[in-house]
Design goal:
alpha/beta, Rossmann fold, 8-stranded mixed sheet, binds guanosine-5'-triphosphate, binds magnesium ion
Length: 214
């Protein structure tokens, strides 16, 4: 449930990058931090990493102001993908307004992707989130590597699912902004439903998305 503080004219939107270990969640946030306009974003915070691996989370804060004066803050989090950090993952996922599921396109990661998606479904249920209404985008990352699933193979598994699928190479920044834009669009739809956003705050979907991209 999105937090809207009417008195302070402030809305906070939590977006979570979820997925198996080493799929590239932290890299997505790092690239977004490189790409977004400086006046929109705060410093990216990384809370304790061990080598390449996230132990708690990464956080990228972004802020925009609607024509109504409403300050909209986005908090982009990553979860730690390693199986043992499930408690942390659940805590970070809690109260998310949107999820980017970052899968690893390498053929040897099929099992880990599936297990992580099952884990998302199970944790979402435990923290009281409804996956049927949650804005969710699926990103298959590491598409630059040689031994990966073809787009056809991936789509044959995912095209029946209700979520949009993107292909990315986060290391090179490819597909990062496109998938993030899709997530913002899905989040906007929910906000508009919940708070009558366009009428109350003067931001339509396209303006909302371009305000974030700067
Ligand atoms: N070749 C290639 N490597 C990538 C890509 N994205 C990330 N990596 C590499 O994969 C490794 C893991 O990336 P991270 O972004 O730390 O992965 P993570 O999902 O945050 O991992 P955890 O925090 O352990 O859950 C790093 O060495 C990255 O440089 C990509 O698109 N292509
Ligand atoms: Mg990480």
């Amino acid at each position: 449930m999105t937090e809207l503080n009417e008195q302070l004219q402030r809305l906070t939107i939590k977006l979570v990058y979820y997925g198996p270990a080493l799929s590239g969640k932290t890299t997505n946030l790092t690239r977004l931090h490189d790409m977004l306009a400086p006046q929109l974003k705060g410093e990216m915070m990384t809370l304790e990493t061990e080598g390449d691996r996230t132990l708690f989370f990464d956080l990228l804060p972004i802020g925009i102001t609607a024509p109504s004066g409403l300050l909209i803050k986005f908090k982009l989090f990553t979860v730690p993908g390693q199986v043992i950090h499930d408690g942390t993952r659940k805590a970070v996922l809690s109260r998310a307004d949107g999820v980017m599921f970052v899968a690893d396109a390498q053929t040897n990661q099929i099992y880990n992707n599936g297990a992580s998606f099952d884990n998302l479904i199970s944790n979402a249920g435990m923290v009281g989130m409804d996956l049927s209404t949650l804005p969710l985008v699926v990103q298959f990352n590491k598409c630059d590597l040689p031994d990966i699933l073809s787009k056809e193979e991936i789509m044959s598994r995912w095209s029946q699912a209700p979520w949009p699928v993107f292909f990315a190479s986060a290391l090179a920044g490819e597909g990062v902004l496109e998938s993030f834009t899709a997530l913002l669009g899905a989040v906007y739809q929910n906000l508009d439903k919940q708070f009558n956003f366009e009428r109350q705050h003067g931001l339509n979907r396209d303006a909302f998305i371009s305000a974030v991209k700067g």
